[in-house]
Amino acid sequence: MWTPGSQKALAGFTGKGNKKRNKEYIVCIAHYISVMFTACELGVFDLLLESGKPLSSDAIAACLGASTMGMERLLDACVGLKLLAAEMTLEGALYRNTEISNIYLTKSSPKSQYHIMMYYSNTVYLCWQYLADAVREGRNQYERAFGISPKDPFGAMYRSDEEMLKFMAGQNSVWSICGRDVLAAFDLSPFTQIYDLGGGGGALARECVSLYPNSTVTIYDLPKVVQVAKEQFVSPEERMVKLVLGDFFNDSIPEAELYILSKILHDWDDDKCKQLLAKVYKACKPGGGVLLVESLLNEDKSGPVETQLYSMNMLVQTEGKERTAAEYSKLLEAAGFGVIRVRRTGKLYDAVLGRKYRHVLQIWETRKKSTTAPQETIHKRNVQCVCFSLYQSLILTVCLTKAILNLYLNSCKIKLIPVLSSLTCIFIPEVLI
Ligand SMILES: C[S@@+](CC[C@H](N)C(=O)[O-])C[C@H]1O[C@@H](n2cnc3c(N)ncnc32)[C@H](O)[C@@H]1O
After folding, report:
1. Can you give the pTM of this predicted structure?
2. Cα–Cα distances in Å, from 428 out to 356, 388, 392, 415, 424?
3. Does residue 249 line the site of ligand 1, with CB under 6 A?
């Protein structure tokens, strides 16, 4: 798990003061992760937060039902990793949480990453043990890790209610640290009717309605996920967050103005992504769009390292991979979406917005705006767009000719009704796309 917490702690671990031994430390990175996960799992950080004062290793071991010898070593290793701080007293060392641990490693913190760490520690890393096999075979490792068919990754992930709950809680964690950034990457306030496809436990949907209070977000997910979301994560009082069950590959997708696909496409290969995006495009209202929330690779795939590691995770767990902005744009374009804009947030996840055009003026306007925005990557849409522009021009020409002809034929007696009716014809096709 590569949280901001672990990044900072690792920077401390390999940084200042350790420079001479930096290279050798590479062999210890796996130990670092294990120490952090174990201290989380045993409840060390929660206990130290709740106690409100530094504690000795004996007291911590007694409270957590662990051996004093084992606990002392674990606590000292956490001090070395800057996850804990120790002060020496006459009675021995007293331990307390560092700021990073309080924020990210305790269960009760609003920015807690506890659940995703536990999911990684107890489930995902069982698949990672077969990483070499995954690289050799190019497929997920559910069969080796759990004796489950690799053909249905979510069937495997949801092999028990307990596993599903752990997965959903884990997926929710990340949005407490970067949900705002991905949702504010574009102004989504014009979209009031939003579907979060594969919205899981609903943490991103909740962030969305809090940032855009005029919007309603409907979480659309598999039936048993929706059931658990209702029972555990989304209370009925949250009236702006709704839940609908469905399978986005096999069932119809309801009409909406905006679809959020957060960490969805990275689960699937290109063919499945195209199939899903084509359905989304068909369901999308004219003028609406789709927001992809994904961790973007650099165009040359040289980084960021977090995304490269996520992509390895996709290999052992799913049918998908992490992609570059150009790769996502290509998938969106293939489905019919237009002027595609990309925003890197500087956090773990980024945002890509594609639009379904309403009419040609909007296309021109959006293109003009996009070219002046340096951060945005512009991808010309496509033959469909050009054809539509030509179609509109043709309609306009025919209607104007018809209107002029009307005027001419009626010479001085100008009949407004046929002229107006001709002009309205111009606008009718605009709502067709
Ligand atoms: C990686 S999780 C992402 C969850 C959430 N969007 C987020 O960003 O935290 C993928 C989600 O897609 C859902 N999902 C997978 N296959 C699906 C399908 N065929 N139809 C609907 N949802 C599906 C899963 O249940 C899960 O909630």
Report:
1. 0.82
2. 17, 13, 10, 21, 7
3. yes
